[in-house]
Amino acid sequence: MSARPPEVRSTCPYCGVGCGVLLSAGEAGLAVRGDPDHPANLGRLCSKGTNLGETVDLEGRLLHPLYKGARIDWDTALQTVADTFRTTIAEHGPDSVAFYVSGQLLTEDYYLANKLMKGFIGSGNIDTNSRLCMASTVAGHKRAFGTDTVPGTYADLELADLVVLTGSNLAWCHPVLYQRIVAAKAARPNMKIVVIDPRRTATCDGADLHLALKPGSDVALFNGLLVAIADQGARDASFADRVDGFEAALAAARAGDLTVTGIAPALMQQFFDLWIATEKVVTVFSQGVNQSASGSDKVNAILNCHLATGRIGRPGMGPFSVTGQPNAMGGREVGGLANTLACHMDIENPDHRQALRQFWDAPIMPERAGLKAVEMFQAVASGQIKALWIMHTNPAVTMPDADAVKAAIAGCDFVVCSDITTQTDTARLADMVLPATAWGEKSGTVTNSDRTISRQRAALPTPGEARPDWAQLAEVGRRMGWHAAFDFATPAEIFREYAALSGIAGGFGLDFDISGLAGLSDTAYDALTPTRWPVSAQKTGGRFFGDGRFFTPSGRAQMLALTHRAPVARLQPRYPLRLNTGRIRDQWHTMTRTAKSPRLSAHLAEPFLELHPSDATARGITPSALVEVTTPHGRAILRALITDRVQPGEVFAPMHWTGENAPSARIDALIAPITDPVSGQPESKAAAARIAPF
Ligand code: SF4
User: Fold this and answer.
1) How far apart (Å, rounded) are the C-alpha atoms in residues 250 and 259?
2) Which CATH number is 398's domain given?
3) Which of 42, 55, 176, 583 to mutate to test the pocket of ligand 1 (most atoms within 8 A of CB)?
4) What distance in angstroms lies between residue 288's CA and the mean position of ligand 1's atoms?
5) Alpha helices, DSSP H, located in 71-117
6) Under DSSP, is residue 120 helix (H, G, I), strand (E, B) or coil?
7) Alpha helices in 444-546 (DSSP H)
8) Which of the chain's ends, N or C, has fewer CB atoms near its CB within 10 Å?
């Protein structure tokens, strides 16, 4: 009998729950099971994690660099990238180039990309697909807390007596976290779950209450809750001196109109009463809140209610954002957004800029934010951006106005794409395609939604000539002339520098401080077990804000005066329906990996449109017929799924399918490039559309 191969501890590459996995590669392929010792999942896995072993074959893998479709060697490829970026910058300035990166990158990759662009090229033009995912939460956290801090931990969701899931189909998009909540409710039947979502999703199946609010009306709803908190005398007097802005926030809330929510008054009152009567309440929010032209305000409307009641940073209570990607949090921490610096330092703060410049011994540092994702691709289209490096993301499919983005990339002077395949809409447009190591082959760290840093480790050999992203970035940095700053031989070396830098942020009194990990030996880095930040001499793991100390200049939290704003995309006679977009249970992003799994593809095999029976009848649309969906920006052909899970006047379509597998179902081609003025996050869930039989 052959010996069982040793298991490698790693994490799942999909959602921000960040489940631990145990991998063993053998003749039968890659076996995957949940890691019983990882605090995020305690051995559980969802369907996507369970079927990871079906996704690691090399069919379609990019195994060597390509330049204009022809194979070239690494030396020529990297020299061409370095030379082209250097000459473009010399001729047109640092803001003529950009990086568009991804929450699929490991922290070490992300850190080097940010260092190269902000500290050495000297532009803020690095943004990430997390702009489409979490930017509104970042903005909301910073406005209220002074820093982008998730106050609580996953354990709070199990300790709560009430979990409110708003703008989150947690059962499909963060399944293991949902399983943990459902298990907690089974053990304590008095625990309540409320879902706030225009759709009756799978998440509602385990809920006590579902509030089907009108798309975009979250601010009005939580303003209503704030008024009820005040009127029922539920404000926490002992926390009042830790919070500024209560009166102004309340006055703005009183001026609001609850009817815009479309929720029956009695049902809404039931929710308000339950929330107020339950001290241990966690409000979980995700893309339904973030992906909106008023996403930042929605986040702050939720935070307002927790701050007014002091229900934050204590066991079983607090606002809780869940991130979409495996390392969206890591990207936020390294400064992967165009308007942030590494370790939660601020680009507008001259002291932070100076400290970072000194630490990196950097020649230059941008004094203002770079272009956020939507602006970045508009600048590519206008010719302002002339050289673009895209890493592990597929903006030709996922950006709003995706057809325009696709045309912009096609027209750009020089596009580099680091990916694991050329079979994406974006990679096919690139001049240079660099083969990157994939999940299962690469090694580094990620941070999940509750601030836990975990190792991803390699269990598979590196195929062909693939190289890790950090190695590609370091080599380009050296070839651009910055030898010492990019002289890294391992991800452990990068992590140590990053951890040391975070001590400077800690010295400014910021939240993100992992300086306690700066001295990790290579062996200790290899063996690092899941660790929640901060990790410093002052503070380790745990919750933030229970002590009433925030990271604002005053040390107090800031409540905001907020007013409901309807979605910017207006309904009109020609486009009378509200188009919502989102994920399905068994696919991930643009399906590069999940489409390889027959079991995952069996769940929902083709793109579809959920529509209400009344809307179907009015247009003569029958079950499973093809439907044409049209917005001012594009058109898609989808299979009709007639269901009362959506409200009359509202339709829903998943965002996963691409030009590679369903050219007529590129949903983000239908979405307008409308963004939140604070966060720059697109309004991806409230397009104005019409439908007709195809
Ligand atoms: Fe992976 Fe998320 Fe599923 Fe966990 S819940 S196994 S992290 S997709």
Assistant:
1) 18
2) 3.40.50.740
3) 176
4) 19
5) 74-92, 107-114
6) helix
7) 469-479, 491-507, 522-526
8) N
**19 CA distance to ligand 1 middle (Å):** 6
Q: What is the pLDDT of residues 106-155, one digit of tens each?
A: 999 999 999 999 999 999 999 999 999 999 999 999 999 999 999 999 99
Cα of 175 from ligand 1 centre, angstroms: 7
Q: Does residue 549 lie within any of the structural domains? A: no
Q: Same structural domain for residues 305 and 444?
A: no
Q: Whose CA is nearest to atom 4 of ligand 1?
A: 19
418, 100 Cβ separation under 8 angstroms: no
User: Same structural domain for residues 610 and 657?
Assistant: yes
Q: Are residues 353 and 308 in the same domain?
A: no
In testing the pocket of ligand 1, which one of 10, 11, 14 has its CB within 8 Å of the most ligand atoms?
14
* Residue 559, domain member (yes or no): no
User: Is ipTM over 0.90?
Assistant: yes
Q: Determine, yes or no, domain membership for 472.
A: yes
Cβ contact 209:223 at 8 Å:
no
Output the CA 392–ligand 1 centroid distance in Å.
19
Q: Which residues contact 160 (CB under 8 A, 6 or more apart)?
A: 191, 280, 281, 282, 316, 317
**Whole-structure pTM value:** 0.97
Looking from the CA of 73 toward its CB, the CA atoms found within 13 Å total: 2
| pLDDT tier for residue 605 given thresholds of 50, 70 and 90 | confident
User: Of the candidates 584, 604, 673, which has an alpha carbon nearest to the alpha carbon of residue 634?
Assistant: 673
Indicate whether 97 and 221 sit together in one domain. Answer: no
In a domain, 80, yes or no: yes
CA trace torsion 215, 217, 218, 224 (10° rounding): -150
Quote the domain boundaries for residue 492: 66-131+327-532
Residues 104 and 28 in one domain: no
Atom of ligand 1 nearest to the CA of 34: 6
Which residues on adjacent β-strands are paired with residue 433? 66, 417
Q: Report the number of distinct structural domains present in the chain.
A: 4
Q: Do 255 and 159 belong to one domain?
A: yes
- Tell me how far the alpha carbon of residue 611 lies from the centroid of ligand 1, in angstroms: 28
Distance CA 302, CA 167 (A): 12
User: Are 219 and 276 within one domain?
Assistant: yes
CA distance 66 to 74: 9
Same domain for 497 and 354, yes or no, is: yes
Distance 396 CA to ligand 1 centre (A): 25
CATH number for the domain harbouring residue 43: 2.20.25.90
| Pocket lined around ligand 1, Cβ cut-off 6 Å | 12, 14-15, 17-19, 41, 45-46, 48-49, 174-176
